[in-house]
Design goal:
The chain has 305 residues and is α+β, with helices and mostly antiparallel strands. It folds into two domains: 2-116, Probable inorganic polyphosphate/atp-NAD kinase, domain 1 (Rossmann fold); 131-295, Tumour Suppressor Smad4 (Sandwich), CATH 2.60.200.40. It has nine helices and 16 strands. It has helices at residues 16-27, 42-52, 64-74, 91-95, 102-114, 139-149, 154-173, 235-245, 251-254, and strands spanning 2-7, 31-36, 57-62, 80-85, 118-126, 129-131, 134-138, 181-184, 191-194, 196-200, 206-208, 211-213, 225-230, 258-264, 266-279, 282-302. A hairpin with a 2-residue loop joins strand 11 and strand 12 (211-213). The radius of gyration is 19 Å and the shape is globular.
């Protein structure tokens, strides 16, 4: 196969030695070219060019943000996407079942390529931007915004940084005392008191160390989207939701503070003013209106066996 290895040299887990080892391993059985990203959005353009040139698979060594960019360049084409974990959390790669070590993951990827384990999967989209695993609206996007302001710390203290940013944002930087937006889905009652919504294409929402943070096991690549909306960020119910997510997530379905929608094909978020949003872990700004859609069979994806 013809492969393009897209490398984000700034990603937390990418090293010069690792890149060399991975390139050699892939090149043993495949025709491999290598390209480095140099700026935000670069992976999208590299992936688009690879698809136009007839490359079979674009392999991404980077974090979830780089993987999302490549997916946006490949959606609607026949060129497949393959993930190698190179970031600090690597949510999507780990969701697929890949080891968190990029060199170990390369062996698993090679096994998948050897048996042509590639299939079409559905994606989500928000205002035309595709997402692989989730969109966060409201509180968590405000947390991601704070983390990105201190992006140089992610390589050395990613989980500590996220924990600190979440607490600081909850305490001082996000208004917890008023609704921020309404959530509308066809055929269901409007949720008019949203403070934090996650729209999931896969589960878990993230990982805390080695533990999955489970919001909706119903969210899979074979089904439409799941919407989870928190109606309060008060300490006691929030701690209860977090505790549930670190186990099975079952409490979310019973909580009166949570609106839970499955098999969502379309939804709208109407902000009561600009609302922050993030896509696959990248903060994309504050907006007043978001349209979420499920896009079936949008992407060819290499699936570990």
């Amino acid at each position: 196969m013809r492969l393009l290895l897209v490398v984000n040299p700034s990603a937390s887990s990418v090293t010069a030695r690792g890149r060399v080892v991975i390139t050699k391993a892939l090149s043993a059985d495949h025709d491999v070219s290598v390209a480095e990203t140099t700026r935000r959005g670069h992976a999208t353009r590299l992936a688009q060019a690879a698809a136009a040139d007839g490359v079979d698979v674009v392999v991404v060594l980077g974090g979830d943000g780089t993987l999302n960019e490549a997916a946006n360049g490949l959606a609607g084409t026949t060129t497949a996407l393959a993930a190698l974990p190179g970031g600090s959390t690597n949510v999507f790669a780990r969701t697929l079942g890949l080891p968190d070590d990029p060199i170990e993951a390369t062996g698993v990827l090679l096994d998948a390529l050897a048996v042509d384990s590639i299939r079409r999967v559905g994606l989500g989209s928000v205002n035309g931007r595709y997402f692989l695993f989730h969109v966060g609206i409201g509180f968590d996007a405000a947390v991601v915004r704070e983390v990105e302001r201190r992006g140089s710390w992610k390589r050395w203290a990613s989980h500590v940084l996220f924990g600190w940013a979440a607490f600081d944002t909850w305490l001082r930087k996000y208004d917890r005392h008023r609704p921020h937006f309404a959530v509308r889905t066809p055929g269901t009652a409007t949720v008019d008191d949203g403070l934090f919504t996650v729209c999931l294409n896969t589960d878990p929402y993230t990982y805390v160390g080695t533990r999955p943070f489970t919001l909706a096991p119903e969210a899979t690549l074979d089904r439409p989207l799941v919407l989870v909306t928190l109606r309060t960020l008060d300490a006691v119910p929030l701690v209860s939701v977090v505790g549930s997510a670190l186990r099975s997530g079952a409490h979310l379905r019973r909580s009166r503070h949570v609106a839970f929608r499955t098999d969502v094909t379309e939804a709208e978020i109407e902000g009561y003013g600009p609302v922050p949003h993030q896509v696959d872990g990248d903060y994309l700004g504050d907006v007043e209106h978001l349209v979420l859609r499920h896009e079936p069979d949008a992407l060819s994806l290499v699936i570990p066996r």
